[in-house]
Design goal:
2 strands, alpha+beta, 65 residues, two-stranded antiparallel sheet
Length: 65
């Protein structure tokens, strides 16, 4: 067997393995989306006639690397 032929086979196999790794990580494991947790709390502080005073509390947590 020729050395060039073996190198072509190795390059092709490594390209296929790399492509499968990308598909696995970004399609099946969904690593393309950031891992965040978002919570929103609303508290009624006061009510006067037809007006409401509300407090909004947003909690964001980065669950990624």
């Amino acid at each position: 067997m020729d050395t060039g032929y073996i190198l072509d086979i190795v390059k092709t196999v490594s390209l296929v393995i790399g492509g499968l790794w990308v598909i696995y990580n970004y399609a099946w494991k969904r690593e393309r989306y950031p891992r965040t947790e978002f919570n929103l709390d609303i508290k009624l502080i006061d009510q006067h006639k037809n007006l409401l005073l509300l407090e909004f509390i947003a909690n964001l947590e980065n669950k990624g690397a």
